[in-house]
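Components:
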Amino acid sequence: MRQLLLLLTNLLLISCTPNEPLYNTQTYVFGTLVDISIYGESDEKAQAVATKIIHQYNDLHQRLHAWKPSELSTINQAFASGQTPITVEPDIAKMIADIAFLSSQSKGAFNPAIGQLIQLWGFQNDTFSAHKVDTESVKSLVAKRPQMSDIVINSNQIHSTNPSVQLDLGGYAKGYALDMGVAYLKQRQVNNALINIGGNIIALGQKGEQPWRVGIQHPRQPNAIATIALPSGWAIGTSGDYQRYFVLDGKRYCHVIDPSTGYPAQGMQSVTVLIPPQANAGVLSDVASKPIFIATANARVEAAKSMGVKHFLVMADEQDIQVSDAMQKRLSWLDTKAEKQLKVIQLD
Amino acid sequence: MIKFSRDRKPLLGDWLVIVIGAIAVIYLFQTLWSNAPASQLQIRQADKIIGTYDLNQTRELHIHGPLGESHISIDQGKVRFKQSPCTNQYCVHQGWLAHAGQVAICLPNQISLQLIGENKPYDSLNY
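Structure:
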């Protein structure tokens, strides 16, 4: 009886706990929504830390802007005008070296050197709209073969051996910012937080007694298809044809461009990757989904393997949904119709 | 008075009760927990919370963003972007939201709608 009373008292205490110490803020950076949640800190500290992170993000965004004057656009101008090396900040040199490595790992499917193609398709614009693209222009830009391996880095001096190389870090910067945010949180001894930049999410610690939990958006409906716990250090990212796209003559053109054809990738609605804790988990959550998104149906698993991805969810359309066995173990499905269509891929 | 005996085997009726009960539990779990109907709507513009609104009403809201005015309709448990001054109209095409955790964002006009309920199934949305 005493134990029962004790239990009841405990329950009563739990239900009397005041509002949980959860701080949340949202703002717009990188042309998308940034959402930061911090758990277990005073509102004052959480706000100060989040404000500083957003400040860092605004700074990064300005430095890496692909179509407004920035450090990146200065580099692009130098690449276009010849092979005279240009001095860059150490962190940018490191970023470019890192991107070149990831690009070679993806066998060129992840290729931020195709800025000219992205511009041609109109995605280097805050308010892009449907427009016809000249097929000859696409062909000629693809034939120039801009690649990350054309860039030569010599400590902080860089140049490109190919003048058609134009960097657009739209598929990298958000992931980089996630890692940057986590580094700053740790520096300020914040142990529990969740950062979401345009749908790419990284977790630090957990929310009280529970791990952080995220929903995975359905590519064609306004609801989540599944939820997944994001333990500390894990990151999740999705490439979708529904985030930035336009429709022309009934055909959808999305922002993910296949560097080998010069055309927006077709026949894929969304690819979600889950990345275990590592130094660049945020970057990988942004980058690793792209090669899978672009790959043909029978090359997807290979593309995932080449990026070291063991957890992926691929929705080509409502009838063609593939999930790796490791990912499936972690998913809680909300959409029972989608769950029935699942094809589980055993990775060795 | 019904007497229970330990060696009595469950009859068809017992099984029916168990099966129907289990189905009811699964059904209720899926409809009420996983897709918990939302009770409130939070609207944010840029980094400000504009307000938290009861979803169970009929109300038209006009929120100002950098591009102009977005028109938001609340209609007895659901909400949508009715009009927005953005080029691609993704927010309008999202249609009605009714479940806790659902989000619609107009990025160009920096307005987000987020549905809040008793049992939010997740903390943040991956898209």
